[in-house]
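chain below, 243 aa
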Amino acid sequence: MNRPIDTIWISHRGLAQVHIENTQAAFEQACDAGFNYLETDLQSCKDDHIVLCHEPNLSKISDLSANISEMTRQQLSNISLYNGAKLLFLDEFIKIFSQKRWVFDIKPETATQTINTLKLMFKNKDHLVNNTIFLFWGENEQRLFLNDFPQAVCFARSDECYRAGFAMLLALGYGAKIEQDKIYSLHPKFFGLPLLNKKIVQRFHDRGAKVLGYLPESDKDVQRCFSAGVDYILSNHAPPLSS
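prediction:
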């Protein structure tokens, strides 16, 4: 399978077939595999540090059932995950993977706390904002961040993506509310029906928006994303060779 050179590949929490997701080893493997961007999840702990973890509780990746928001950085740093790995904090991630671009998924459980910490971390550091695509789950949280960083690039929120995807599937342009320069995530299939095709993606492009193929599960789904002409692909698997 040929990989279009203009398709941007985003690693979903690193490559986790061997390593635990969102750990340094998973991201290092994703870098070796040739991903353009590294996507990760941001949760805040008790003393306002940001840790990379999808779930607010540690029970899925360790023997400890504890909420991240109730623990300090020092306590979290001492935890060993199932394979002996350690949790990774955002400041560490930024330093280690400074040569890559990033996608930050601001998890809703501690969104306001995380945004306030990001504001301090990114203040007067436009290069960090420019290196990142942000995903917010709530409109108020997104607005809170954009008030300080209006230049930040954001993925369309899930409600916006569902509305736009359904409207484009039915060719209902008036109900899509597609915004220029925004990135919309679409599944390769919608209730078992192929959703991504050239016609649908072109409808987004005609409105100045971009499209991300969301977590294709098979080579057939990846090829469907390629054929449709998506701008980005978010994947749990290594991208195919470019030639």
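The mean pLDDT is 93. The chain is about 30% helix and 20% strand.
thats it, cya
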